[in-house]
From TrEMBL:
This is 2-amino-4-hydroxy-6-hydroxymethyldihydropteridine pyrophosphokinase. GO terms for molecular function: 2-amino-4-hydroxy-6-hydroxymethyldihydropteridine diphosphokinase activity; ATP binding; kinase activity. Residues 4-136 form the 7,8-dihydro-6-hydroxymethylpterin-pyrophosphokinase domain. Coiled coil: none annotated. Signal peptide: none annotated. It comes from Gluconacetobacter liquefaciens.
Amino acid sequence: MILIAIGANLPREGGSTPRETCRWAVGRITAIPGLRVVAVSPWYESAPVPPSGQPPYVNGVVNVAGEIDPAALLAALQAIEAEAGRRRTVANAARPLDLDIVAMGSCVRDAPDPILPHPRAEDRAFVLLPLRDVAPDWRNPRTGHRVGEAIAALPVQEIRRLDGA
């Protein structure tokens, strides 16, 4: 099981809304050779982390099956981000698309990139709530925490499930 977090808070080049861009990204992930999308979470809206004057994010998680090297997956996801118009400037900048590998099965690695599982996933409701929707039994292979336990341990964060697909 490969879990990929999707987020956006700026329009994509061409004017697509963040939610449309997130849906578009699911299609692009499906096109990565050797991968198959098993489930797509509902979309959520969340305040930026850390707090800033940015617009809210649309977030979700996809559960993907298949075999791919972590570095190859990271490169493919960064190419999709670039296609959507993401330009890496400063940390935590607003962006038309953000794709993060949350976990790849039971893989635990500290280097090289990507670090797995994602080192900040358990701190973020905008990752954990949609992750629970697509992998309710997921357990962080580094900490051993189940997704529900991680959610229960979170401080209050601004996030709401969006209606519709």
